[in-house]
Amino acid sequence: MYLTYNVREYFESIKKLDNSKVLDFGCNHANFLLKEFNGKYIGVDVDNKELKNNKNKFPQHTWIHYNKYNYQYNCNLHIVDTWPNLPNNIDTVIAFSVFTHTTFEEYQYTTSKLQQHLSNDGNILSTFFSSLDKKTLYSVLSHRPEYFKDCQEDIVDKLFKKDVIYLCVNTLSKQVSIFDSLKDLPKFSNRNYFLTFYNDQWLQDNLGGEIIDVTDRFTNILSTQKCLKLSTPR
Predict the structure, then answer these.
(1) Across the chain, what does the average pLDDT equal?
(2) Beta partners for residue 124, in sequence order
(3) What ranges make up the beta strands (E) of 85-191?
(4) Cα separations (Å) of 126 from 10, 54, 196, 223, 230?
(5) CB of 126 within 8 A of CB of 198?
(6) C-alpha Rg value of the chain to the nearest Å
(7) What's 188's DSSP letter?
(8) Worst-scoring range by mean pLDDT, 10-14, 21-25, 136-140, 167-171?
(9) Is residue 213 predicted with pLDDT exceeding 80?
(10) What is the reported pTM?
(11) Is residue 224 within 8 Å of residue 127, measured between CB atoms?
(12) Is the four-CA dihedral 144, 145, 147, 152 of positive or negative sign?
């Protein structure tokens, strides 16, 4: 079940988006469009069914399917990933809670590809779960108490201050596993719940950009994620 939250308010607390060209990477069910947008909006997602729903609701905007494997939303193991035909001169790419559910390698690859579609002064604003704040870690886990209620403290201690670490839950057995590498694991299916956490400085050292923290301005899911701001490569 998809959550509804004001993702546009989150990103507009970082950068003005009115009258601009915005690409919403991992647009979900178009939370960005909870209120009318006066710029050009492009929604991209791996979930083609949800994109069709968005197109029916918001035919005035552009919707693009990225036919890429995803453990939960597009879990056909036979998909051959092909980068979508995206427009150029994008002022801002936003990605809310997308790379919180991928490997670091996918984060790195995808943002490098997206940078090629930016305008000269464009930005990518992508959110991530920080491993540096125990209060935030508890908050992230509290969104799924059916998995973490009885083991929060132990998990938080294992996640705290790690460079990059992955948490995976089998949604049938509710078994929780924590990994610092996924190289030897097969692709997940929709029976798994998958989260990625980063040490802020490690992420910045490896991807560049600027870490922006607006978590104190929000509640619920918006308060759990910091933002990495990347610019057009020079």
Answers:
(1) 92
(2) 93, 230
(3) 90-95, 118-130, 164-170, 176-179
(4) 11, 21, 13, 14, 8
(5) no
(6) 17
(7) P
(8) 167-171
(9) yes
(10) 0.94
(11) no
(12) positive
